[in-house]
Amino acid sequence: MLLLFQSCKSSKLDNNKNLITKINDTTNMVIDTVIIPHQIVKLIGKQMLTDIILADSIKGYTIESFVNENQIENDTIIGGYEIINESRNLNTELSKLLKTKIYDTNSYSFHISNTCLFTPEVAFQFFHPKKKTAVLFSFNCNKWKFIDDSKQVITDFAPKKLNIKALVKELFDIEIQSVKN
Fold it and tell me: Concatenated DSSP letters for 103-146?
């Protein structure tokens, strides 16, 4: 699988955008094209976004809200947080929905920074042959944390725009009580 990462200037919005095109290396056919605003690329990074795009599958988890510093990363730990419950792999529709929310500037609260203890309840792990990337959600303070092998980025999300409650409900058949609207 080839991936083209290009910067382009949108004359209409006068904003820098990054165009990511996924190409099948056997057929050279375009599989998918995603436009990601420069603001998100700058915050999360090209490599982590590339890993999310390349993911063959995505799995959801409910996790213990407090990190155990002594835990070693393995199949029962994500970002230092113990897995409580594992969902099935997200289907194509739910995978696309989650990725779309990650690439949308409206999902972020760039101008607001909540000061609170990051206590995630839900995580999504993006799998592809070379790497695993995770996104953890703390609904009590509206923050999400992006994690890969070399980087961690924590930032605020806009709960009304991100609206992750329906996805959590569908995957786990639970209501997260701390989810704020």
Answer: H-GGGB-TT----S-----EEEEEEETTEEEEEEEETTTTEEEE
The model carries a pTM of 0.81
Which tokens is 94 given?
A: 């739910």
Determine the Cα–Cα distance for residues 49 and 69; give it in Å rounded to an integer: 27
CB-based contact 80:68 (threshold 8 Å) = yes
Query: What range defines the domain where residue 121 resides?
Result: 2-172
How many domains is the chain built from? 1
Contact 41, 52 (CB under 8 A): no
How does pLDDT run across 37-59, given as a tens digit for each residue?
Answer: 888 988 998 889 888 888 889 99
* Within a domain: 18: yes
Q: How many helices (H) and strands (E) does the chain have?
A: 5, 10
**Residue 180 falls within a domain, yes or no?**
no
